[in-house]
Design brief:
Blueprint (H helix, E strand, L loop, with lengths): L4 E2 L2 E2 L7 E5 L4 H7 L4 H10 L12 H11 L2 E5 L1 H10 L15 E3 L3 E6 L5 H11 L15 E8 L2 E8 L4 H9 L7 E7 L6 H12 L4 E6 L8 H9 L14 E3 L8 H15 L3 E3 L5 E10 L3 E10 L2 E2 L3 E4 L2 E4 L2 E3 L5 E2 L1 E2 L4 E7 L8 E5 L2 H23 L5 H10 L4 E8 L2 H12 L8 E9 L4 H10 L1 E6 L5 H10 L3 E4 L2 H12 L7 E17 L3 E14 L3 E6 L2 E8 L2 E4 L2 E2 L2 E3 L3 E5 L11 E9 L4
The structure holds guanosine-5'-diphosphate (GDP).
The site of guanosine-5'-diphosphate has 16 residues, from helix 5.
Subcellular location: Cytoplasm
InterPro entries: EF-G-like_DII, IF2_II, IF2_N, P-loop_NTPase, Small_GTP-bd, T_Tr_GTP-bd_dom, TF_IF2_bacterial-like, TIF_IF2
Pfam families: EF-G_D2, GTP_EFTU, IF-2, IF2_N
Length: 613
């Protein structure tokens, strides 16, 4: 269909030329590329039945539609491609070691543990860590920073191995989906008493797709009925043939629980790396790598665990991680010790960033603070545009009519907030994998780390989204705003529960029975220590009322620190009372729970039956 003019405005027409546009571009960006008046593009869209303003970011489909209509060929530049171009404009190359062969030296392999739920991934990661802490570096407080390094002896030589400490393939896939390759070798854990299960296959396929060699850990051999031979047979069908059967995959029988053969497993990892990979890196250049975990820490600000992939990261370096940047103020290793430098394949916790980056974001060290800031700002702007583009709903006049007539919603919009970038991304990728049929479209409009804020509610209001708080709560005003605007904010602490509920809701099968009703919130102003009762919180009631014997949770910096607490004691001055209302002060005793701090918030709630609707 050709549209020569609308209301007297001449419409631009191309000859099939290609126009490159970044994801989330606006009609004005498009117009600029083809030397046209933005207003004329608005007119074309109107003609197609869509109201779009000239400066708003639009979806890929809208750009495509518009281009087709005007006989242009549009090429939407992926974020990865765009990022490469951005770095190139600063003369930075990401992902390649500088210099020639002679600059490269051996580095440890980076390993991810994958497998079916309950087959022992977590237990194995703990067992490895406990038995093989790098000699001489123990002593600090063991910290879970998202990765750790161990050492093992192979052929009389000390060899190191780096483990990514978040088991499961969700994190692995989320990172890979973003173009970040974090893993050299995958350990596939299969419980010998259970055999190959659906997620075993899934994990195996992910590793294969990423071209990552696999070492199989046949776990739980201590359990009665364990059949390690059967596991070998089963996996043969999926192309993993054990060495003893003439294949090239190493299988090691272990018990994570009893700590059996953990060393053999580590040896298998080293041998597999030596046989099939050439793991070398330039340790002398400016550091580059990826972020594997990040969160906001009350005392320390934004902290991120990064895995150095090449170069050496040093305290004082200026770095960019995703859209965060800063000078490295301090670095801690996985034993909680301060370190001043970290070379290839070393994970370190970095302090000093401006904000919290995402898991899988790449990081690089640059010479000047100004460059770091500019790269970070450009990336942030791009993220905003892309988020906005996703958010813009394309409702054509036709469609709108249909939707209204049928009285049905066709798209479930979600906003995900969580306590750490890893969990948020794992949640997002699991949700996006839900098979929801053709009638409904599931979209994640926004995701982030931290409490649910007014901005989130704002976005939810504007796009009819549901807000998911994963191990975080809404801050005070956001709760009120959500209530006022009728935004559904749901809190969870277990990933599969979110998945189950969303799936049920999408299938129209959600049977709400009980809902949580917030009763009141109290801010801790002082802490009194009583030898008989433990810590008593001196509080000011911020909203609602706090009643004795109701359930409570403790919130610190918007994050839930403890669940399932009970208001065991409630006092005003010297009197025991049953309730204290908003604006009044009092004392709260949470029974045996004592880990409270000034500024923490105690939120009380009760479960009420929810009317079915
Ligand atoms: P994940 O879901 O794969 O991370 O599995 P977990 O590491 O949480 O382990 C699931 C359950 O299996 C836990 O109760 C573990 O204690 C248990 N388990 C893990 N490894 C072994 C093992 O080698 N032997 C036995 N008997 N139990 C194990």
């Amino acid at each position: 269909m050709q549209a020569p003019s609308v209301g007297g405005v001449m419409l631009p027409r191309g000859n099939g030329q290609t126009v490159r546009l970044s994801r989330g571009a606006s009609l004005t960006d498009f117009a600029e590329k083809i030397n046209a008046n933005p207003a004329s593009l608005v007119a074309v869209m109107l003609n197609l039945g869509e109201m779009v303003t000239a400066t708003q970011s639009v979806s890929d489909e809208t750009l495509q539609l518009l281009a087709d209509e005007m006989n242009y060929n549009v090429e939407i530049v992926s974020p990865e491609e765009e990022d490469r171009e951005l770095l190139e404009s600063f003369d930075i190359e990401f992902g390649e070691d500088e210099g020639g062969e002679e600059m490269l030296s051996a580095r440890p392999p980076v390993v991810t543990v994958m497998g079916h739920v309950d087959h022992g991934k977590t237990r194995l990661l703990d067992a490895i860590r406990k038995t093989n802490v790098v000699a001489g570096e123990a002593g600090g407080i063991t910290q879970h920073i998202g990765a750790y390094q161990v050492s093992t002896e192979v052929n009389d030589e000390e060899r190191r191995i780096t483990f990514i400490d978040t088991p499961g393939h969700e994190a692995f896939t989320a990172m890979r989906a973003r173009g970040a390759k974090s893993t050299d070798i995958a350990i596939l854990v299969v419980a010998a008493n259970d055999g190959v299960m659906p997620q075993t296959i899934e994990a195996l396929n992910h590793a294969k797709a990423a071209d990552v060699p696999i070492v199989v850990a046949v776990n739980k051999i201590d359990v009665e009925g364990a059949d390690p031979t059967k596991v070998r047979g089963q996996l043969t069908e999926y192309g993993l043939v054990a060495e003893e059967y003439g294949g090239d995959t190493m299988f090691v029988d272990i018990s994570a629980k009893q700590g059996l053969h953990i060393d053999s497993l580590l040896e298998a990892v080293v041998l597999t790396a030596d046989a099939s990979l050439d793991l070398r890196a330039n340790s002398e250049q400016d550091a580059q790598g990826i972020a594997i975990e990040a969160h906001l820490d009350r005392g320390r600000g934004a902290v991120a665990t990064v895995l150095v992939q090449r170069g050496t990261l040093r305290v004082g370096d200026t770095m960019v991680v995703g859209d965060a940047y800063g000078r490295v103020r301090a670095m801690l290793d996985d034993n909680g010790n301060n370190v001043v430098e970290a070379g290839p394949a070393t994970p370190v916790l970095v302090l000093g960033l401006t904000n919290v980056p995402g898991a899988g974001d790449n990081f690089l060290v640059v010479d000047e603070d100004r460059t770091a800031r500019q790269i970070a700002e450009k990336r942030a702007a791009r993220e905003r545009n892309a988020a906005f583009a996703k958010r813009t709903r394309r409702v054509s006049l036709e469609d709108l009519d249909k939707v209204l007539k049928a009285g049905q919603v066709q798209q479930l919009n979600l906003i995900i907030k969580g306590d750490a970038s890893g969990s948020v991304e794992a949640l997002e990728s699991s949700l996006l994998q839900l098979d929801v049929g053709e009638e409904v479209d599931l979209r994640v409009l926004h995701r982030g780390v931290g409490a649910v804020t007014e901005t989130d509610i704002d976005l939810a209001t504007g796009s009819d989204a549901i807000v998911i708080g994963f191990n975080v709560r809404a801050d005070g005003r956001a709760t009120q705003m959500a209530e006022r605007e009728g935004v559904d904010v749901r809190y969870y602490s277990v990933i599969y529960q979110v998945i189950e509920e969303i799936e049920a809701a999408l299938k129209g099968m959600l049977k709400p029975e009980y809902e949580e009703v917030e009763l009141g919130t109290a801010e801790i102003r002082e802490i009194f220590r009583s030898s008989k009762l433990g810590n008593i919180a001196g509080v000011l009631i911020r909203s609602g009322e706090v009643r004795r014997n109701t359930k409570a949770r403790l919130i610190r910096d918007g994050k839930v620190i403890a669940e399932n607490l009970n208001i065991e004691g409630l006092r005003r001055f010297k009197d025991d009372v049953t309730e204290i209302r908003e604006g009044f002060e009092g004392g709260i005793n949470l029974g045996s729970y004592n880990d409270i701090k000034i500024d923490d918030v105690i939120a009380t709630y009760e479960m009420r039956e929810k009317p079915r609707g």
